[in-house]
Design a protein that fits this description.
Elements (H helix, E strand, L loop, with lengths): L8 E7 L3 H12 L5 E7 L2 H8 L7 E5 L1 E2 L2 E2 L1 H10 L5 E5 L4 H9 L4 E4 L5 H33 L9 H18 L2 E10 L1 H8 L1 H17 L6 E6 L2 E9 L4 H12 L4 E3 L2 E3 L2 E9 L6 H16 L6 E3 L2 H21 L6 E8 L4 E11 L4 E2 L2 H7 L6 H20 L6 E5 L10 H12 L6 E6 L7 H14 L2 E5 L8 H6 L4 E4 L1 H4 L5 H13 L3 E4 L5 H9 L4 E2 L10 H10 L3 H11 L19
């Protein structure tokens, strides 16, 4: 009875521990004239699990409810989990009909009393069970289709207004619990009316579908693109590290629309105007956020100089400053000006400079990025060329410093989250190290903790490759994101660095100590940046963190000043500050231990 390739044959799995009942059922099915059956028999759930591991094809399960390793309704649940999507007919005796009815309520399609088995009844029950199961599947599919039609745009198949508002409300609740921000972008196609007027509505529908596809590909899988109606789209962006990241998303959406659309063989250009509202600053409910993003979009329509605007004046002012800074950075890349300043990374106990961190500086605008902003700059759309130019400057200067006798010195360079998704970066870095004749062990790369969110495999693979290359890896902005501690154990990081937001003030004393202790427990050296005054330095040192940097020790300086810094050694005032930061914490009413009291040199 083995004909698995014949579609006219009904393939049945029988789970029955009674050899007598099994033979009776097999003989009954063999005697059936109305259908042909391929029957496979196992005696327990354990045997069924072994069989299911091979992914066999069955049409139905005949199930005894009194197996040696499973009893009653629980057996139905186990079979449904083991072989999902198959109809089940349970078999029982006269005294177990109540349990059989409960099994049907639990998901079985029908039941049979063994003593009443006959060829006609058995075949009819199997057929009816399969048909009933098929009807239930069709009904569920119809319900899904109705639900899809109710929540999705029939033309573009994007979420519609109803579903978007529902998803946005859920995202607001999540952001409120996690104290995160999100953004709603309202996009209106520019020039779309001309397509309808010139080429007709069918062409317009085709353009809407193409635009929807481009917009969906321009954002992350976790972002939501919806069509509200006409040529209006809304985009939900969660998990923002900076509110201004929403401007980067708006730019990506507009770039996606730049390539001309082909309409009846003719190229047609259609742009997009984008209004942006952020939670919680511009609204705390879905309707308010969408309304304010819509208002911001209409403001864009009235201006010829902007293609996207935030709802709030403050956010627009910040975006304008960022745009001016970005344009200045791009101009500086085309010039011969240096784009790097250096800030020493100090061992406050040993009283020496461990590394010089290269911080990007815009020679045109006279602005400098902080380490964390520099690391995030690549994710805000700034050129990869900037990061690699800074890296090249740092490697070149390190070679010169080592030639001058600073053999233990290393350099630190911020790395953007975008670079961590660039598979070719490791090869380019390896060539740069070889060209500049720098040992990889003398290079430390920092990357933002936020880079450890989302899809982990590409990022982890690249970090592993960097570790194999020999460079040191520092997780920057530790404690400000939501990286999983398990990932920190899997990647070859050597240190964590936290900023003043976790190091400041007596009210955060426990938090500072916890961060330092956590880093050490993970085998990662704790480091502090942004140390701008003596109290902060003392506070961090009191918790055993000896590696620090900040303006209180030394501000970022030009390469010429960095040469003087390294050539002249530590000034007397700096040595005094380092000894003070290396001292144990001052206890209430006590002085420092006499041998470690601060003394001026």
């Amino acid at each position: 009875m083995n004909h698995p390739s014949d579609p006219a044959i009904i393939r049945v799995l029988m789970i029955e521990d009674s050899a007598f009942d099994a033979v009776l059922i097999e003989e009954t099915l063999e005697a059936a004239d109305a259908a042909r059956f391929d029957l496979q028999h196992v005696e327990s759930m354990a045997e069924a699990e072994v069989l299911a591991a091979g992914n066999p094809a069955f049409d139905l399960v005949l199930l005894d409810l009194t197996l040696p390793d499973s009893q009653g309704v629980e057996t139905v649940d186990r079979v449904r989990e083991l072989l999902p999507g198959l109809p089940i007919v349970v078999m029982t005796g006269y005294d177990c009909e109540r349990v059989a009815l409960q099994a049907v309520q639990a998901g079985a399609q029908d039941f049979l009393v063994k003593d009443q088995l006959g060829s006609r009844l058995l075949v009819r029950t199997i057929r009816h069970a399969m048909e009933r199961h098929r009807m239930l599947i069709d009904l569920a599919r119809s319900r899904d289709e109705v639900q899809h039609l109710a929540t999705h745009d029939p033309l573009t198949h994007l979420p519609n207004r109803l579903l978007f508002y529902d998803l946005l409300s859920q995202a607001i609740s999540s952001a409120d619990r996690r104290r995160r921000s999100l953004a709603v972008l309202f996009l209106d196609l520019d020039g779309f009316k001309g397509v309808n007027d010139t080429y007709g509505h069918e062409a317009g529908d085709e353009v809407l579908c193409l635009a929807a596809r481009r917009l969906s590909l321009a954002v992350r899988d976790s972002d939501v693109v919806a069509r509200l109606g006409g040529d209006e789209f809304t985009i939900l962006v969660e998990g923002l590290s900076y509110d201004l990241d929403a401007a980067r998303v708006a730019q990506q959406l507009q770039e996606a629309l730049e390539e001309p659309f082909r309409v009846q063989g003719n190229p047609v250009r259609i742009g997009g105007s984008v209004g942006i509202a952020t939670y919680p600053g511009d609204g705390t409910d879905a309707a308010t956020l969408v309304r304010n993003a819509d208002r911001a979009m209409y403001s864009v329509k009235k201006r010829a100089d902007r293609k996207h605007l935030f709802f709030s004046r403050e956010m627009n002012a910040r975006a304008d400053r960022q745009n001016r800074s970005e344009r200045a950075w791009i101009r500086s890349l085309d010039s011969d000006d240096r784009v790097v300043r250096y800030q020493p990374v100090l061992d406050t106990v040993a009283g020496k400079t461990l590394s010089m961190e290269a911080l990007p500086e815009c020679a045109v605008a006279g602005e400098m990025l902080s380490p964390v902003d520099a690391a995030a700059s690549g994710d805000r759309g700034w050129s990869r060329a900037l990061g690699e130019r800074v890296l090249d400057h740092a490697l070149r200067d390190l070679f010169a410093w080592r030639e001058a006798g600073h053999e233990e010195l290393s350099v630190t360079v911020p790395l953007s989250g975008r670079v961590l998704r660039d598979r070719e970066f490791v090869d380019r870095l390896s060539r740069m190290l070889e060209q500049r004749q720098v040992d990889p062990r003398l290079l430390a790369l920092t990357f933002p903790e936020s880079a450890l969110l989302g899809d982990c495999r590409p990022t982890d693979d690249l970090l592993q490759s960097l570790g194999l290359l020999g460079v040191s890896l520092i997780v920057d902005g530790f404690g400000s994101g939501q990286s999983q501690l398990g990932r920190l154990c899997r990647i070859p990081a050597t240190a964590i660095r936290f900023g003043p937001e976790l190091a400041g003030g007596s009210e955060r004393e426990d938090l500072t100590g916890a961060v330092v202790a956590l880093g050490r427990s993970l085998g990662l050296e704790p480091m502090a940046r942004g140390i701008d005054d003596a109290a902060l330095a003392d506070h961090v040192a009191s918790h055993g963190c000896r590696r620090m940097q900040g303006d209180w020790f030394a501000p970022a300086m030009s390469c010429v000043d960095a040469d003087r810094w390294l050539a002249g050694g530590l000034a007397a005032e700096l040595r005094r500050r380092l000894r003070r930061s290396a001292a144990p914490p001052r206890r209430r009413g006590d002085e420092y231990a006499s041998g470690l009291k601060t003394q001026d040199s």
